[in-house]
Every structure is written in structure tokens, then in C-alpha cells.
Amino acid sequence: MWASRTSATSPRSRTPPPWTTYARSPPPSSVASADIDVLIVGAGHAGLGVAARLKERGRHALVVDAKPRIGDTWRERWSSLRLFTPRFMNTLPGLRFPDGADPFPGKEEVADYQERYASERGLDVRMSTRVTRLRREDQGFAAEIGRDLVRARYAVAATGAHQVPRIPAFASRLDAGVLQLHSRDYGRAGSLPAGPVLVVGARNSGVEIAAELARTHEVTLAIGSRSTHAPARWRSPTWWRIAQLRNSLSHGWEPPGRWPWPIKPPAGRWIEVDLSRAEREGLLRTAPRAVDAARDAVRFADGRELRPRTVIWATGLVSTSCGWVCSRRCTGAGSRSRRISRGVANARSTPYR
């Protein structure tokens, strides 16, 4: 049940807090006076899919998410982003992913689909709702949300395993006059100031952001290790269907060698942008691994330096290890679904980028 952690007799213990509730699926009036059956933390594909399946089985699930609007995690990414997986692989239970001119949807399409899914499936979703702590109790779980306490019989962590930007320690030695962003935050940063841009990290996010910015800025891409340009089949829906069929027949086993498996390259890593061509055509410059920084300059492994106005760290994310979950065991939402600590479960992510 809802309860205040300040006073058992205060008005806050009798009335749910004024969180933003999804407009077309208001919470049932019984939430304020009865335990929640299942609390799902995270309103992405995993969380919404689990909630829909539970509803089909007659179970009530409350989905909470810290973002203001369903799909905002996708809306905040860089504008040119397209999913690696074709439309048919992004469908949630009970609602087909819409068709489009491009077999591989963009980020706005995914965000709008998630919002539509929650509405049409009538899911109970509350946004702008951050769970700061989840702990085991005798009869279920207690979730701390602001100054309020929510009790649930079961809990699902569907927030994704990797949430914290990985930024090298030497970044702190750059002057405040150098704008620094992680690739996770680049999409919501707005227009960047004029001047040279350094993108550190040459996997798909870094290369795509570099190519996007090269239209308006002088861009240098720092590369630790080169990846292979993806073959044409990477963007073939037919090839993905073959991979999906083989995955189904083999129960997830991946054969060795050069098999037509678009999800996993035979050697190394694939990137979508043809980086060699971009260099030849003068779209952007490349540099070796960034190894140090001082004041307004970043130093590379070959000793050269660059004085950028903006640095974008496309250096990946690290696992939060569900630090907000106080339980005997915890794994991230990106791993396989399994029950942990007698009732806390994690939801397996869909194969997005």
C-alpha cells in the first residue's frame, strides 16, 4: 500500500503523490488502499511487454519510469539514429510495429510506438516517477519513490543494465571552457557551439554522431581500434529473418565461422558508416586513441594534440548493477530473464542498438 515515510498519520499516507500518470490509462482507485501486485521499474520495450503479458493473465502491473514521457529515452538520442533490427523484430505482444518506407525504423518511430502501445493496451504507467530504493520485505517488496513508500508482491527491474557513462579520468583535466558531453546526452544538448569537435570512440554511436556533426562542424574522430564496415546484408530484412529462424531452430546456439549471421560479425565489430570513404572524401578527420588532456588540449597516442571547442565521449556505458535494489542477488535488465531474491525479476531486453 502507499505509505509515507515521514508520518503514519499524515495526509500523505492516505493519498497517492501527484505523479504524472499516463493520460489514457489512469491508475485504479484501489491502488491507494491495496498492495500492488507487480511493480515494474522502466517503461521501455521490456517493461511494457512484461506488463502487457501480465495483464493478459489477469495480473495488475504498475509501470513506473523516471522520464517525463513514454519513449523519451529514444527521443533524446541523436537525430540520425536508426535501429539495427528491422521492424518485424521490434514488435511487442499484441500490437504490430507499423510499416514504413525504411525497413529499419528511426528513434522517433520507436518512441511513438511505445507510447501508442501503452495507450492501446491500457497499461497502468506513471511517468516522472523515480524508484530510489527497492528492498525485500516479509510479504513482498517496498519501493522508495521520493518520500513515499510503495509495497508490491513482486518487482521487475526493466531499466537496462548499462546506465552510467564511461568517461576517462583525464577528461577532468580539461578547462571548463571546453564543452564535454557523453554520447548518451548528445541528442538533447541542442545546437553545439561553433568550433572544432572531437568525438572520442569509433563504434557505431561515435561514428554516426561524427558523421552527423560533420555537416556543420570541423570534426575529428579519435579511434582506439578500427571496426569493419558492415556488409549490405546488415540492412537486409530477409537476412535478419534467416538469422531469426536459425536462432529459433538452434535455441540460441551460434555456429562458428563465417555463417550468415547479421547479429554477430564473423570477426571484429561492424559499424554502419563507411569510415574509410568518409576520410577519403574529407568529411572528417581521424586521430589515434585519446590518452590525456590538459587545459584546452587533448593528446593522442601518437603525441599530436587537438584543441577542440567540444568533446563528445562516445566511450560506452557501464553497468549500474541495480544498485538501487537491496536484495540477495541482482542482475541488469539486459541479461536473461530470471527470478532473483524470491520475487525481484529482471526483463530481457530486445535486440536494439
Question: What this model shows, in words?
Answer:
With 353 residues, the chain is α/β, with parallel strands linked by helices. Helix content is 18%, strand content 25%. Strands 1, 2, 3, 4, 5, 6, 7, 8, 21, 22 and 23 form an 11-stranded mixed sheet that branches. Helix 6 links the parallel strand 13 and strand 14.
Domain module tally: 2
Distance between the termini: 37 Å
Percent range of helical residues: 10-25%
CATH superfamily heading of the largest domain: FAD/NAD(P)-binding domain
Quick overview of this protein structure:
This protein is α/β, with parallel strands linked by helices and 353 residues long.
Topology:
Elements (H helix, E strand, L loop, with lengths): L2 E2 L15 E2 L14 E6 L3 H12 L4 E4 L7 H4 L31 H14 L3 E4 L5 E5 L2 E6 L2 E10 L4 E4 L13 E4 H4 L10 E4 L3 H10 L5 E4 L5 E2 L7 H14 L19 E2 L3 H6 L4 E3 L2 E5 L2 E4 L4 E2 L3 E4 L3 E3 L5 E2 L11 E3 L3 E3 L7
Parallel strand pairs: 3-4, 3-8, 4-5, 6-21, 8-23, 10-19, 11-12, 11-19, 12-15, 13-14
Antiparallel strand pairs: 1-8, 2-5, 6-7, 7-8, 9-20, 16-17, 17-18, 22-23
Could you list some keywords that capture this structure?
disordered C terminus; disordered N terminus; 353 residues; globular; eleven-stranded mixed sheet; FAD/NAD(P)-binding domain; five-stranded parallel sheet; 23 strands; alpha/beta
